[in-house]
Amino acid sequence: MSICKRVQQWATFARTWHIYDCTWQNPFDSAKIISKHLMGMNKPIYHPMNDCGDHVVAINTKEMALPGDEWIKRVYFHHTGYPGGASWTLAWELHEKDPTMVMKKAVYNSMKGNLQRRYTMQRLHLYADDKVPEDILANVSHQIKALRPVPQRLDHIDKEIVDNFPKIMDYPEDYIIR
């Protein structure tokens, strides 16, 4: 095998590192995209029995958003293995205890039927905020695009831009809002 072909083969089978920002993202929709990269379904060499997946670093899991009233209605089940060890935890309670756990469970459940799911999850690196260790950030070479755009907060926009924004009407000076 020539040197050029060998390098091409190494690049084909190499595990790349992706970063994904979970700010304002639905964890269940995000989990589908993250699991595709973890299992290697985005590669042309993918096969269900081939372990060719990549690493994914998910940041800002503390800022993710569940649709509707899922925070109060979604329940997560856990069993310790001992008699009477079953417990159900609401999503907001689980998120307060560990901000990465909801995303971890969503990704785990999105890989149903994957025989290597346990080992594939070891390549998922979750962080509650954007403070990622330098040795992990040094490996990241690709960013996964967010599914929905994050709106800019009004208090983060320059006052000059807000004042120059076109107005439909000007309220009189003595106007009182009731």
Q: Got a strand count? A: 6
Mean pLDDT over the full residue set: 92
Strand order of the largest sheet: 5-2-1-6
Order of helices and strands: HEHEHEEHHHEHEH
Low-confidence stretches: none
Class computed from helices, strands and strand pairing? alpha/beta
Question: Portion of residues in helices?
Answer: 25-40%
Helical segment tally? 8
How is this structure best summarized?
With 178 residues, the chain is an alpha/beta fold. The protein has 8 helices and 6 strands. The strands form 2 sheets. The chain has a 4-stranded parallel beta sheet, covered by helices on one side. It has a two-stranded antiparallel sheet with strand order 3-4.
Task: Walk me through the topology.
Layout: H1 3-13, E1 17-21, H2 27-39, E2 55-59, H3 70-73, E3 75-79, E4 86-90, H4 91-97, H5 101-110, H6 117-120, E5 124-126, H7 134-137, E6 140-143, H8 159-163
Give me some keywords for this one.
two-stranded antiparallel sheet; 4-stranded parallel beta sheet; single chain; 178 residues; Ribosomal_uL13_sf; 39S ribosomal protein L13, mitochondrial isoform X2; ribonucleoprotein; 8 helices
Overview of this protein structure:
This protein has a four-stranded parallel beta sheet with strand order 5-2-1-6, with helices on one face. Strand 1 (17-21), helix 2 (27-39) and strand 2 form a beta-alpha-beta unit. The protein has 178 residues and is of the alpha/beta class. 17% of the residues are buried. The mean pLDDT is 92. Helix 2 (27-39) packs across helix 5 (101-110). The chain is flat. It contains eight helices and six strands. It has helices spanning 3-13, 27-39, 70-73, 91-97, 101-110, 117-120, 134-137, 159-163, and strands at residues 17-21, 55-59, 75-79, 86-90, 124-126, 140-143. The termini are far apart.
